[in-house]
Each structure stands twice: as structure tokens, then as C-alpha cells.
Design brief:
alpha+beta; four-stranded antiparallel β-sheet; 6 strands; elongated; disordered N terminus; DUF4942
Length: 282
């Protein structure tokens, strides 16, 4: 994908590289030390509970929790079950942080990000180790172009061909989407849902192709559009560097592209995936 963007993220490429200047060895060593100390603490709490029960003081679950606010705590459970859950929770958090720092999330569309986060909710997530970190991010590095291009194709395939402006061969000067906005007695509002995600994906792809940093999700086009609509309840038009968006009471939105050279790069990707459409695109 290097021919399309100068914004390649900082992803691991070999055994001497780091992810955003974070040492893999430090992560793994810290994780192992934390788990070792946690297991020791669980055993100590169990020993203390045995002592306090023997003198009529009940267990740590009774006297270590706030009054009338007793809740589950893995530190108070049996060591084998507790360490399994604690290890999984800790590793899940570390993987999320590594993925965020790697820059790979910026290349993923909403579907790919959901698949990644859902995979972390499973019980059999890989342990955080040097070997697993290296193999995971080397694989992600090699597939980053494919991941990005799949996102472009997913956005394209999500367009409705019921509108003449939406060409089944390419992104045109504008696209039309349904369900992006709503209208009621208070005026317009931006809907939550897959169309909102798709607009954010589209902006991120154009920004990457332009070689610029991807906006934080707190400042992406959907947030800016939402703020604009909130401040201008009866406005029907929004503009920024990438788009002009006209929206209508029935919920449809006309999204016009302001950077045709970037749209051409999107269409280059579509052509590679749908070579049979080459004549139509040209």
C-alpha cells in the first residue's frame, strides 16, 4: 500500500523495533511481575481469611469490603480460578493498548475493528509474551495494505445502487446515503449506526491517502457534523476540507468529495479488486 499513502503507521517490522517507543521486553517483564505479585497477594489474603475466620471475624470478603457494598473481587477467590481471570483481563488490556499504539486501528474499518475487539472478549486470547507480540504485529504489518483496502471495498459495497449518483463501478463526484440524519420537531440530528461509522471510515481513508494524521475519534467528521447540526438545527449543509454534505428531512445525505485526486486513489483500489469493472471506471 506504500504507493497510496505516506502515512504508514508505526508497526513492528522486526525483532529490534518498538511499538511507539514502548519496549516489548518491559511490557512482558512488567506483566509477569504483576501476575506473580498478584498471585502471592491472593494466597496472603486467603491465609488472612483463614486466620480471621478461626477467631470469629469472618473472611476478607466480609471485613475488607465497604459496608453494605459487598461485590465480587477476584483477589478474594480461589487462586486457580482467580489467576486465570486476572491474567485474561490484564492481557486483554495490554493487547488493546498495543493495538492502539501500533497505528493499525487507523487502517481498519468499523467491521475490522469490531472483529478485533470481539476477539479479545474470548476466553482463549493469546498470552502477552514476546513471541506472541512479535508474531501478531509482524502479521499485522504484512497485511496492513490488505486491511486498508478491504475497508475501502466494504465502504464501497455498502452504497445503495438505488441512487443514480452511486455508480456500481466507482466512487463518483458524490455519493448518496440513507439514514445518516433524522429530523423531528426540534430539527435535524445525526443518527448513530453503521452509516455514521461508514462516514468516519471514508474520512479516515481519504486522510491516510493524503498522507496526513488520522483525526482522533473525538474530532472526526461525524463528531464535527454532529456539533454543526446541534448548533444549527435547521441548517441543511456542512462543509470541511474533504466533504460537502447536504442532508434532507427524509434522512438521506448527499456527500460530495472535495479532493478528486484522493477519490481517484480510492477507485484505483476498487479497480484492483474488481478488474472486470475496468472499462466501466474508464
Amino acid at each position: 500500500m506504500s504507493e497510496h499513502t505516506n502515512a504508514d503507521p508505526e508497526v513492528l517490522t522486526d525483532h529490534t523495533d518498538v511499538i511507539c517507543s514502548t519496549s516489548i521486553e518491559r511490557i512482558v517483564t512488567g506483566r509477569n511481575a504483576a501476575l506473580q505479585q498478584t498471585e502471592s497477594l491472593i494466597h496472603q489474603l486467603n491465609d488472612i481469611s483463614t486466620l480471621t475466620r478461626s477467631i470469629g471475624g469472618k473472611s476478607a470478603l466480609d471485613w475488607a469490603m465497604k459496608q453494605d457494598f459487598r461485590c465480587g473481587c477476584w483477589l478474594m477467590e480461589k487462586p486457580q480460578a482467580a489467576m486465570k481471570a486476572i491474567t485474561r483481563n490484564l492481557d486483554r488490556s495490554i493487547w488493546r493498548d498495543l493495538m492502539k499504539k501500533s497505528g493499525m486501528l487507523a487502517l481498519m474499518d468499523a467491521q475490522a475493528r469490531d472483529e478485533w475487539y470481539n476477539s479479545l472478549e474470548k476466553d482463549d486470547i493469546p498470552a502477552v509474551s514476546e513471541k506472541n507480540i512479535l508474531s501478531t504485529f509482524e502479521q499485522l504489518h504484512h497485511s496492513k495494505g490488505e486491511v486498508f483496502e478491504r475497508g475501502v471495498i466494504n465502504v464501497f459495497k455498502g452504497l445503495s445502487w438505488d441512487f443514480k449518483s452511486n455508480s456500481p463501478c466507482k466512487f463518483g463526484k458524490k455519493i448518496i446515503v440513507t439514514g445518516l440524519v433524522k429530523y423531528d420537531r426540534w430539527g435535524f440530528g445525526l443518527n448513530w449506526g453503521w452509516q455514521r461509522d461508514r462516514l468516519a471510515d471514508l474520512e479516515r481513508m481519504l486522510v491516510l491517502l493524503d498522507g496526513k494524521p488520522v483525526p482522533d475519534n473525538r474530532a472526526d467528521v461525524t463528531r464535527r457534523l454532529s456539533d454543526h447540526i446541534h448548533a444549527n438545527q435547521h441548517s441543511t449543509r456542512y462543509k470541511d476540507e474533504m466533504f460537502t454534505i447536504r442532508y434532507f428531512r427524509k434522512g438521506t445525505a448527499h456527500i460530495s468529495f472535495k479532493r478528486p485526486e484522493l477519490v481517484d486513489k480510492l477507485n484505483d483500489i476498487i479497480v484492483r479488486h474488481y478488474l472486470g469493472m475496468l472499462a466501466c471506471v474508464n
